[in-house]
């Protein structure tokens, strides 16, 4: 819970639903007002009879600030922590991922994610609930800065898309995410049907597969680390070049190397 209206709204709805709630607030110490945000969360929790845990993390200014702050936040929050992302956040994430060059996973975020219980709720409805309860939620001034892509998507791109389409595009994008997710699950099932490991399939067979099947199969088997982070789209494309014989080896994340020897793949 940041103290903003989205997370405050999530807290109110969780309490209305009769859930046993513990609030977690992460102070990144990136803004002069971050300390007052933490105090607001603690005071609100006390007034509602809810336990509050404040996590202090240090995020140094620099490149990829949002991504690094998100990684720090995820590192201290308990697994399964719910967040107040709305349908509007879902639509913005789809557009951001599209601008960055995403595959089907990036175009279907948050769908069937139990940590995002408000993904079918509109942001303005959630804010109206908080206002109706007489709570003055905190405002993060960085959400107004055009220095961040998400803010420009929210304040410029989505309103422009609404104007071009002559209607609210957020529900349309959210519905498309649901449809893409269905296709994504089907691809996952196809990839899972072949239980062979990366080094057990002849590259001559792999080259005969439809590209979508090969891409999904490689993506699953090149996941990195204990949490099985999937490879980027660029890494998968580099892996396909090894399969097709364009190169004999490529570098992957985590200091790994994918190579081909006698028509079989090796990951080291």
Structure description:
The protein is mainly alpha-helical. It folds into 2 domains: about 160 residues, Rossmann fold; about 70 residues. The chain is about 50% helix and about 10% strand. The chain is built from 10 helices and 5 strands. Helix 2 links the parallel strand 1 and strand 2. Helix 4 packs across helix 6 and helix 9 packs across helix 10. The two termini are about 40 Å apart.
CATH-defined topology of the largest domain? Rossmann fold
Total of helices: 10
The Rg value, from CA coordinates, equals: 22 Å
Distance between the termini: 41 Å
CATH class wording of the largest domain? Alpha Beta
Trace the largest sheet across and list its strands: 3-4-5
Task: Classify the secondary structure makeup into a structural class.
Answer: mainly alpha
CATH architecture assignment name of the largest domain? 3-Layer(aba) Sandwich
Largest sheet: 3 strands, antiparallel
**Structural shape:** elongated
* CATH homology group of the largest domain: HUPs
Q: Features of this protein?
A:
268 residues, mainly alpha, Rossmann fold, 2 domains, three-stranded antiparallel beta sheet, 10 helices, 10% strand
